[in-house]
Amino acid sequence: SSELTQDPAVSVALGQTVRITCQGDSLRSYYASWYQQKPGQAPVLVIYGKNNRPSGIPDRFSGSSSGNTASLTITGAQAEDEADYYCNSRDSSGNHLGWVFGGGTKLTVL
Amino acid sequence: EVQLVESGGGLIQPGGSLRLSCAASGFTVSSNYMSWVRQAPGKGLEWVSVIYSGGSTYYADSVKGRFTISRDNSKNTLYLQMNSLRAEDTAVYYCAREGIAVAVEQKVMMEGWYFDLWGRGTLVTVSS
Protein backbone atom coordinates (compact mmCIF):
# COMPACT_ATOMS: atom_id res chain seq x y z
CA SER A 1 0.00 0.00 0.00
CA SER A 2 0.98 3.65 -0.41
CA GLU A 3 2.42 5.84 2.33
CA LEU A 4 1.94 9.49 3.20
CA THR A 5 4.77 11.27 5.02
CA GLN A 6 4.32 14.24 7.35
CA ASP A 7 6.71 16.10 9.60
CA PRO A 8 6.05 14.94 13.17
CA ALA A 9 5.96 18.43 14.66
CA VAL A 10 5.74 22.03 13.55
CA SER A 11 5.51 25.25 15.55
CA VAL A 12 4.24 28.72 14.66
CA ALA A 13 4.07 32.03 16.45
CA LEU A 14 0.62 33.34 17.22
CA GLY A 15 -0.76 35.21 14.20
CA GLN A 16 1.87 33.94 11.80
CA THR A 17 1.51 31.61 8.83
CA VAL A 18 2.39 27.94 8.92
CA ARG A 19 2.47 25.27 6.22
CA ILE A 20 2.06 21.58 6.99
CA THR A 21 3.11 19.23 4.23
CA CYS A 22 2.25 15.69 3.18
CA GLN A 23 4.21 13.66 0.63
CA GLY A 24 3.27 10.49 -1.17
CA ASP A 25 2.92 8.91 -4.59
CA SER A 26 -0.87 8.69 -4.28
CA LEU A 27 -1.00 12.50 -4.23
CA ARG A 28 -0.07 12.52 -7.90
CA SER A 29 -3.44 10.90 -8.58
CA TYR A 30 -5.67 12.07 -5.75
CA TYR A 31 -6.18 15.23 -3.75
CA ALA A 32 -5.43 15.03 -0.07
CA SER A 33 -7.94 15.76 2.64
CA TRP A 34 -6.86 17.26 5.95
CA TYR A 35 -8.12 16.64 9.48
CA GLN A 36 -7.64 18.47 12.74
CA GLN A 37 -7.69 16.44 15.92
CA LYS A 38 -7.57 17.82 19.43
CA PRO A 39 -6.86 15.62 22.47
CA GLY A 40 -9.71 13.28 23.32
CA GLN A 41 -11.76 14.33 20.31
CA ALA A 42 -12.64 12.81 16.96
CA PRO A 43 -10.92 14.18 13.85
CA VAL A 44 -12.56 17.10 12.07
CA LEU A 45 -12.32 17.64 8.32
CA VAL A 46 -10.76 21.03 7.52
CA ILE A 47 -9.79 20.83 3.83
CA TYR A 48 -10.85 18.53 0.99
CA GLY A 49 -10.59 18.37 -2.78
CA LYS A 50 -8.63 21.02 -4.66
CA ASN A 51 -9.08 23.57 -1.85
CA ASN A 52 -12.49 23.26 -0.22
CA ARG A 53 -13.46 24.07 3.35
CA PRO A 54 -16.45 22.46 5.05
CA SER A 55 -19.01 24.77 6.57
CA GLY A 56 -17.76 26.24 9.81
CA ILE A 57 -14.04 25.96 9.06
CA PRO A 58 -12.36 29.40 9.17
CA ASP A 59 -10.97 30.78 5.92
CA ARG A 60 -7.50 30.97 7.43
CA PHE A 61 -7.25 27.26 6.49
CA SER A 62 -6.33 26.55 2.87
CA GLY A 63 -4.94 23.67 0.84
CA SER A 64 -2.75 23.23 -2.19
CA SER A 65 -0.91 20.52 -4.03
CA SER A 66 1.97 20.09 -6.45
CA GLY A 67 3.29 16.81 -7.76
CA ASN A 68 3.51 14.35 -4.88
CA THR A 69 3.12 16.98 -2.15
CA ALA A 70 -0.01 18.39 -0.56
CA SER A 71 0.06 21.33 1.83
CA LEU A 72 -2.22 22.71 4.49
CA THR A 73 -1.64 26.39 5.20
CA ILE A 74 -2.93 28.27 8.22
CA THR A 75 -2.70 32.01 7.64
CA GLY A 76 -2.74 33.87 10.94
CA ALA A 77 -2.59 30.89 13.30
CA GLN A 78 -4.71 31.13 16.44
CA ALA A 79 -4.24 29.46 19.80
CA GLU A 80 -7.21 27.17 19.08
CA ASP A 81 -5.42 25.81 16.01
CA GLU A 82 -2.99 23.91 18.23
CA ALA A 83 -3.76 20.29 17.42
CA ASP A 84 -2.64 17.24 15.48
CA TYR A 85 -3.18 17.43 11.74
CA TYR A 86 -3.50 14.40 9.46
CA CYS A 87 -3.53 14.17 5.69
CA ASN A 88 -5.37 11.41 3.87
CA SER A 89 -5.87 10.22 0.32
CA ARG A 90 -7.10 7.31 -1.71
CA ASP A 91 -4.52 4.55 -1.95
CA SER A 92 -3.53 4.23 -5.57
CA SER A 93 -1.00 1.40 -5.28
CA GLY A 94 -1.66 -1.64 -7.44
CA ASN A 95 -4.95 -3.37 -6.77
CA HIS A 96 -5.17 -2.12 -3.21
CA LEU A 97 -8.43 -0.25 -2.83
CA GLY A 98 -8.43 1.72 0.34
CA TRP A 99 -7.35 4.89 2.00
CA VAL A 100 -4.12 5.95 3.65
CA PHE A 101 -3.37 8.50 6.37
CA GLY A 102 -0.18 10.38 7.06
CA GLY A 103 1.49 9.91 10.40
CA GLY A 104 0.25 13.27 11.66
CA THR A 105 1.84 16.62 12.47
CA LYS A 106 1.61 18.11 15.94
CA LEU A 107 1.16 21.85 15.59
CA THR A 108 2.24 24.05 18.48
CA VAL A 109 1.17 27.70 18.53
CA LEU A 110 3.69 29.74 20.48
CA GLU B 1 -29.29 16.04 13.53
CA VAL B 2 -26.72 14.36 11.31
CA GLN B 3 -24.53 12.16 13.45
CA LEU B 4 -22.80 8.83 13.95
CA VAL B 5 -22.74 7.00 17.28
CA GLU B 6 -20.45 4.03 17.82
CA SER B 7 -20.92 1.34 20.44
CA GLY B 8 -19.75 -2.14 21.30
CA GLY B 9 -16.21 -1.52 22.42
CA GLY B 10 -14.70 -2.97 25.57
CA LEU B 11 -12.05 -5.22 27.03
CA ILE B 12 -11.56 -8.51 25.22
CA GLN B 13 -8.96 -11.26 25.50
CA PRO B 14 -6.57 -12.03 22.64
CA GLY B 15 -8.21 -14.37 20.17
CA GLY B 16 -11.67 -13.16 21.07
CA SER B 17 -14.39 -11.53 18.99
CA LEU B 18 -16.27 -8.27 19.21
CA ARG B 19 -18.87 -6.53 17.07
CA LEU B 20 -18.90 -2.77 16.82
CA SER B 21 -21.99 -0.82 15.78
CA CYS B 22 -22.33 2.64 14.31
CA ALA B 23 -25.83 4.08 14.33
CA ALA B 24 -26.44 6.85 11.84
CA SER B 25 -29.07 9.56 11.97
CA GLY B 26 -29.95 12.36 9.59
CA PHE B 27 -28.74 10.53 6.48
CA THR B 28 -28.87 7.08 4.89
CA VAL B 29 -25.91 4.75 5.45
CA SER B 30 -26.61 2.66 2.37
CA SER B 31 -26.40 5.70 0.08
CA ASN B 32 -22.86 6.50 1.16
CA TYR B 33 -19.41 5.01 1.33
CA MET B 34 -18.83 4.26 5.01
CA SER B 35 -15.51 3.45 6.64
CA TRP B 36 -14.03 2.37 9.93
CA VAL B 37 -10.87 4.17 11.03
CA ARG B 38 -8.92 3.32 14.17
CA GLN B 39 -6.38 5.06 16.36
CA ALA B 40 -4.13 3.16 18.74
CA PRO B 41 -3.33 4.95 22.01
CA GLY B 42 -0.97 7.83 21.33
CA LYS B 43 -0.70 6.92 17.66
CA GLY B 44 -2.03 8.19 14.34
CA LEU B 45 -5.11 7.35 12.33
CA GLU B 46 -5.32 4.07 10.42
CA TRP B 47 -7.98 3.28 7.85
CA VAL B 48 -9.49 -0.17 8.53
CA SER B 49 -12.33 -0.95 6.14
CA VAL B 50 -14.91 0.49 3.75
CA ILE B 51 -18.28 -0.56 2.43
CA TYR B 52 -19.39 1.08 -0.77
CA SER B 53 -22.95 2.18 -1.40
CA GLY B 54 -23.18 -0.70 -3.86
CA GLY B 55 -22.10 -3.15 -1.16
CA SER B 56 -18.49 -3.87 -2.12
CA THR B 57 -16.13 -4.13 0.82
CA TYR B 58 -12.38 -3.58 1.22
CA TYR B 59 -9.97 -3.98 4.10
CA ALA B 60 -6.56 -2.88 5.26
CA ASP B 61 -3.99 -5.66 5.02
CA SER B 62 -3.64 -5.61 8.81
CA VAL B 63 -7.22 -6.82 9.34
CA LYS B 64 -8.00 -8.71 6.14
CA GLY B 65 -9.47 -12.13 6.88
CA ARG B 66 -10.24 -11.23 10.51
CA PHE B 67 -12.61 -8.25 10.29
CA THR B 68 -15.89 -7.97 8.38
CA ILE B 69 -17.72 -4.75 7.61
CA SER B 70 -21.47 -4.82 7.01
CA ARG B 71 -24.59 -2.70 7.33
CA ASP B 72 -28.24 -3.14 8.20
CA ASN B 73 -30.25 -0.84 5.99
CA SER B 74 -33.41 -1.25 8.07
CA LYS B 75 -31.56 -0.01 11.15
CA ASN B 76 -29.41 2.51 9.26
CA THR B 77 -26.45 1.03 11.10
CA LEU B 78 -22.89 0.09 10.14
CA TYR B 79 -21.07 -2.82 11.78
CA LEU B 80 -17.56 -4.14 12.19
CA GLN B 81 -17.22 -7.78 13.19
CA MET B 82 -13.76 -8.33 14.64
CA ASN B 83 -12.47 -11.87 15.09
CA SER B 84 -9.12 -13.30 16.20
CA LEU B 85 -8.33 -10.09 17.99
CA ARG B 86 -4.73 -9.22 18.79
CA ALA B 87 -3.10 -6.80 21.20
CA GLU B 88 -2.21 -4.57 18.25
CA ASP B 89 -5.91 -4.13 17.49
CA THR B 90 -6.26 -2.07 20.67
CA ALA B 91 -7.52 1.33 19.55
CA VAL B 92 -10.37 3.78 19.44
CA TYR B 93 -12.53 2.79 16.48
CA TYR B 94 -14.33 5.53 14.58
CA CYS B 95 -16.92 5.15 11.88
CA ALA B 96 -16.90 7.83 9.22
CA ARG B 97 -18.95 8.88 6.22
CA GLU B 98 -17.13 9.50 2.97
CA GLY B 99 -17.55 11.95 0.17
CA ILE B 100 -15.78 12.80 -3.05
CA ALA B 101 -14.91 16.08 -4.73
CA VAL B 102 -13.74 16.20 -8.34
CA ALA B 103 -11.79 18.89 -10.18
CA VAL B 104 -9.95 19.17 -13.46
CA GLU B 105 -6.22 19.89 -13.27
CA GLN B 106 -4.53 20.57 -16.60
CA LYS B 107 -7.21 18.58 -18.43
CA VAL B 108 -6.86 15.67 -16.00
CA MET B 109 -9.72 14.78 -13.67
CA MET B 110 -8.55 14.54 -10.07
CA GLU B 111 -10.58 12.95 -7.29
CA GLY B 112 -10.49 14.09 -3.70
CA TRP B 113 -11.93 11.63 -1.20
CA TYR B 114 -12.70 12.75 2.30
CA PHE B 115 -14.32 11.75 5.59
CA ASP B 116 -16.79 14.50 6.40
CA LEU B 117 -18.66 13.02 9.35
CA TRP B 118 -17.11 11.10 12.23
CA GLY B 119 -18.50 9.45 15.31
CA ARG B 120 -16.96 9.98 18.73
CA GLY B 121 -15.38 6.53 18.68
CA THR B 122 -15.48 3.42 20.81
CA LEU B 123 -12.46 1.99 22.62
CA VAL B 124 -11.44 -1.61 22.05
CA THR B 125 -8.82 -3.02 24.41
CA VAL B 126 -7.35 -6.42 23.64
CA SER B 127 -5.56 -7.74 26.69
CA SER B 128 -5.41 -10.78 28.93
Describe this protein with a few key phrases.
heterodimer, A: 110 residues, mainly beta, six-stranded mixed β-sheet, globular, B: 128 residues, four-stranded antiparallel β-sheet, 11 strands, 0% helix, 59% strand
Reported for the largest beta sheet of chain A, the result is: 6 strands, mixed
Number of strands of chain A: 10
Instruction: Identify the quaternary structure here.
Output: heterodimer
The biggest beta sheet of chain B reads:
7 strands, mixed
- Greatest contact between two chains: A-B, 31 and 28 residues
Q: Give the structural class of chain B.
A: mainly beta
Gyration radius over CA of chain A = 13 Å
State the separation between the terminal residues of chain B, measured CA to CA: 39 Å
Order of helices and strands of chain B: EEEEEEEEEEE
* Estimated share of beta-strand residues of chain A: over 45%
Specify the number of helices of chain B: 0
Helical coverage of chain B, percent range:
under 10%
DSSP strand count of chain B: 11
Label the structural class of chain A.
Answer: mainly beta
Number of helices of chain A: 0
Distance between the termini of chain A: 36 Å
Mean pLDDT of chain A: 94
State the share of residues found in helices of chain A, binned by percent. Answer: under 10%
Which strand-content bin applies to the residues of chain B?
over 45%
